Sequence to fold (304 residues):
Amino acid sequence: MTNDEFLAAFGTEQACISALFDARWPVGFRCSACGSARYYEITTRRLPLYECASCRLQTSLIVGTVLEGSRTSLTRWFYAMYLLSRENGISAVRLGELIQVTYKTAWLMAHKIRSAMTEADAFVLLTGDVRIDRCFYGDPTFDDALQPLLIGASFNEEAEPVVIKIKQPDPDHIYENKRFIKPEGVQAFHEEQTDCSSMPDISRYCKNNPALVMVVKQLKAWLNLTFNGIGAKHLQRYLNEFTYRLNCKIRGGSAFQETVGWCASSPVITYPQLTAFKRTLQVPWLYFGSKSRWRGSHISRWGA
Fold:
């Protein structure tokens, strides 16, 4: 879908209301209390309410979605979903400019959409011929600037990846030199991200698989060119966004339509939840000539 085609289809609030309704109730409205399909529509508010004809329970269009509690128009939300579902995504700075909201609002909207992409990532497990490898994100010149990662993929008979996942390991599963991940970190990835019944052990661990190496190169280029680097605290959500779009592309699905569907069915994540403390690898101040800079996990200070 081109930008003009998107604006023609979702350029009005009513068009977005209809699309969100269909995404939330794909087989028609169902009351969450009694399951009735009969309802009355109340249109006296900015967004419609749906009152069950049987038990009189009123249901908001956005309650129970990632949009819950938002006062931003649906046209802006849908445009944000469209922009984040495009191949290269978009930074919060650029998103705020395009949908005409503040940087903080754009940042929060983008992360709420990424939380829906995370739900989609958790829904699918790696199965069949699964291969796992270690990789890194950050400046390879400095050991303490690297963020160790684990990448895994399901491969088809042509040795092509069909589902890809990239995860940050638990800090306890990383050696002190930060260049190596402990075996229990690989085992934890295997247990959490694969269908263990289809892969009872981690004998498929591989090193420098060409397909996985190419994915890691694409990931690094995207993070650095689009965001000027990402810090360790929020890195996992960006990894989920990257693999979500990549997996949509591999299976030939519509990333935008799937994003709308997941945003309509995923719980909202709040600003305090997004900014809560998270254990990550700590990177000290490093001194370069006459200037001190953050490296590695704090690279986002340079404009992420």
Summary: The first helix runs from residue 3 to 10. DSSP finds ten helices and eight strands in the chain. The first strand starts at residue 39 and ends at 42.
